[in-house]
Amino acid sequence: DQWPLKQERLQIVHHLVEEQLQVGHIVPSQSAWNTPIFVIPKKNNKWRLLHDLRAVNAVMESMGSLQPGLPSPSVIPEYWSILIIDLKDWFFTIPLHEDDREKFAFSVPSTNKAEPAKRYHWVVLPQGMKNSPTMCQIFIAWELEPIRKRFPQLIIYHYMDDILIAGKDMQPEIILNHLHGELTKRGLRIAPEKVQ
User: Which Pfam families does the entry link to (predicted)?
Assistant: First the structure.
């Protein structure tokens, strides 16, 4: 069941759920599954909608870790240029299999219990599912493969939603423009405020 939420947090939940509904990440549901949601503040004074999936994770087979740690940047020559990119909302670019969607349902209570709660489920990979990081690593690796082939002279590392690109005579603006175009074609977006 859904945990009680203070009025302020409930209003934020309603707003964030409406946003997710509008962009197609969730749909109305009649699923028998139901796990709690909550919100936490982000560093930029916005809020993040989180789904407590511990009960779902407990009955799910683990895919394990594909990348047990961070790649070491020590293999990058000292004078090479480095570009660091953060992908935005990358979890939400991977669709859930139709048979699994109902397991990721949650309910949004009404204000003061004025009406029945509304239930939704995710149609894209939710944050908090124990296999989401592994699935994302696989997906990002697939999407970066054509870029690695096109620029074999570059070192391209990725770990979760971060991509590090290094090159001897790399022109970061050209690489960033090309990467932006390629990733956009694949449904991925770069967080411009986090490019270094």
Answer: RVT_1 (PF00078)
Tell me which residue of 83, 87, 22, 25 sits closest to 51, measured CA to CA: 25
Residue 186 domain-assigned?
A: yes
pTM across the whole model: 0.81
Same domain, 89 and 104: no
Residue 2: its pLDDT value, please? 76
Tell me: the pLDDT tens digits for 103-147?
Answer: 999 999 988 788 889 999 999 999 889 998 888 888 888 888 988
Radius of gyration for the alpha carbons in the chain, expressed in angstroms and rounded: 19
Side chain identity at 122, as an amino acid letter?
Answer: W
- If you search the block for the tokens 């599954």, which residue do you land on? 33
- Find residue 105's DSSP bridge partners: 121
Residue 68 forms part of a structural domain: no
> CA-to-CA distance for 116 and 12, rounded, in angstroms?
18
Query: What is the token pair recorded at 36?
Result: 């709690």
